[in-house]
User: Fold this.
Amino acid sequence: MLAELGAPVVRTPARSICNDIVYNGNVRMTGIRSIEALAPPVYLDYAATTPLHPRVLEEMLPHLTREHGNPSSPHAFGRRARSAVDLARDRVDRLLHGDISEVCFTSGGTEADNLALFGVARSVTQRRRIVVSAIEHHAVLNAASRLGEMGFDVVQIPATRSGSIDLNSAMTLINEDTALVSVMFANNETGVLLPIKAIARMAHEAGALMHTDAVQAGGLMRLDPHDLGVDLLSISAHKFYGPKGAGALWVRRGLKIKPVLYGGAQERERRAGTENVAAIAGFGRAADVALTERNHWVLQVDSARQAFQQELAHLEGVQYHGIEEQRLPSIINFSVSGVAAELLTMRLDGLGLAISTGAACASGSLEPSHVLLAMGMDEAEVRSSVRVSFGRGSTQESSRAAAQLLGAVVTDMRLAASAPNPYCRTARS
Ligand SMILES: Cc1ncc(COP(=O)(O)O)c(C=O)c1O
Assistant:
């Protein structure tokens, strides 16, 4: 992104960021220079959200300015808004290799997940079990726990140490009483890809429906709900250079689910409310751009991530999580021994580097990551874990510089932790 915007590419030899950390006895002088001092800030939190693609903005602008019609109005203004929504539906549908009637626009991934879970649970009469994985996003986990409060029997498929889910447990948990199984396509904290086809087969053998939250994979992976064998699939525009506040639930043709919102007959009565035309138009364009550019993005994030990891190899005490599994090329998660991740991300933020301690909606909360805990890590390891995620603006150079900066700050934090505290000494003497 930085290079694209004409910003100077960060070309920083390792020493220029961290060579003047000096530790002599009690005195610690840190000469860590921010990335900002060398170039604009570096954003490595694409799993939280992505910047708008210029072509997406171009598509949205008319609907934020001169085109203000309501798609339900029969006059020319309304008809133009309707065609914008129809075009977007066609584009999202092509991204999902589906049928145009199957895409239901929502306000984002969270609403799509809620519509899937509540929509199915409120449509079934006999079956009472809802099966989710222990490493779902909170949009699924919290919706499921609300269903639990409403009397459903909600059970979780445990995670494996490597960040996938335990298929043997899944087999025993998915039974004849199961209404819905919801397992995510790719985990948002570790990037691990989950065995959706196998789980969908188990769900269907038991007569249950299958939902997958594919929010993190939207712009990078081929998503074909028919091929995956799922009945419902969620995506969100802002994870692949579209606007925030636009998402979709793909619903297999013929499947009827109850709405969550009541009102007008929009979205074939599955989602009431006047459509957010500008965001939907942008979402459609983002889908279109993703179809043509995603192979290139995959190569780019792959090389940026590799550059980061090569540079990080110089730092001791780094342990990657979920690295053995098939994964998204864009996300890595690792712990840095002896370092508090919250503090590390705060210090890096102050120096112009944005990474996170986990899911954007959970980072900032003091709760340790439920995903890493479910993978069997102890709390200390979880609290020293960070997520770094790459996107179309990531270059090898900026990623290398980011890893150097991270290494320098970690070294500094470790030195600080091991240095005798002069105040303690004064107090004792
Ligand atoms: C896997 C996953 N599901 C759902 C969501 C929620 O999507 P949205 O932010 O569009 O509500 C996110 C967002 O981070 C996500 O990563």
